[in-house]
């Protein structure tokens, strides 16, 4: 290879300092040594890197292209060196974290900031999971950490969980929906006549099918919580929402709460991970599991676990 990182470092220093002498002081090398490196590079590439006609050297057009791309290579090399050192010290190259669709990302931002202040070289890869799919992602090692996993943990070896709290879901409809005016508690035979909406992302390995309120009930399955709220606000369907998601629309009169004969039990939110011998990156988050749980309780209005 004709272009070396050492040569690029020399060119970068000379271009920034303006003279071979100043660059030599910065690199602790004799100016003649730097001149040899540049001349060899120019000879190997068949180009002129510096215009030496003035007291302060200037990059030629070819030199500017070389330095522009060279700086990227130098940054990448420095980054690689740091990542290798971090890996040797036990820091993972990347950490995959999934959050439930209900979890406000603002609740996690202080943790991201604190983590990166201590270790900015582990890449944090965030994804959003839907109820039913979040445990599957952890069980199949698609993610390293779950924040706000909903429901009962599966029987998977090496799975660790911390309950953050419980949230109640309420049955809501738009004010103009027919169910807004019927007698309570609403009977199953009445519910069956109306379309139901639920968040559900079908997957080949999904653990559970979509559950409607009444067997055989017409339903719409949507991919996100926001889509579900939109369907409910439109009056196209009825359905359940967590209190934290429904309350703003109830307060503004866009949704009304209706009572059924049998209500859904509260759901528990968890912090969960799968590692018997965690690296330092996921270990950092595990050490703060109680703080994460508290952040979820505050942002989602969860009831603290018993």
From TrEMBL:
<keyword id="KW-0238">DNA-binding</keyword>
<dbReference type="InterPro" id="IPR036390">
    <property type="entry name" value="WH_DNA-bd_sf"/>
</dbReference>
<keyword id="KW-0804">Transcription</keyword>
<dbReference type="InterPro" id="IPR005119">
    <property type="entry name" value="LysR_subst-bd"/>
</dbReference>
<dbReference type="InterPro" id="IPR036388">
    <property type="entry name" value="WH-like_DNA-bd_sf"/>
</dbReference>
<dbReference type="Pfam" id="PF03466">
    <property type="entry name" value="LysR_substrate"/>
</dbReference>
<protein>
    <submittedName>
        <fullName>Regulatory protein, LysR:LysR, substrate-binding protein</fullName>
    </submittedName>
</protein>
<feature type="domain" description="HTH lysR-type">
    <location>
        <begin position="3"/>
        <end position="60"/>
    </location>
</feature>
<dbReference type="GO" id="GO:0003700">
    <property type="term" value="F:DNA-binding transcription factor activity"/>
</dbReference>
<keyword id="KW-0805">Transcription regulation</keyword>
<comment type="similarity">
    <text>Belongs to the LysR transcriptional regulatory family.</text>
</comment>
<dbReference type="Pfam" id="PF00126">
    <property type="entry name" value="HTH_1"/>
</dbReference>
<dbReference type="InterPro" id="IPR000847">
    <property type="entry name" value="LysR_HTH_N"/>
</dbReference>
<dbReference type="GO" id="GO:0000976">
    <property type="term" value="F:transcription cis-regulatory region binding"/>
</dbReference>
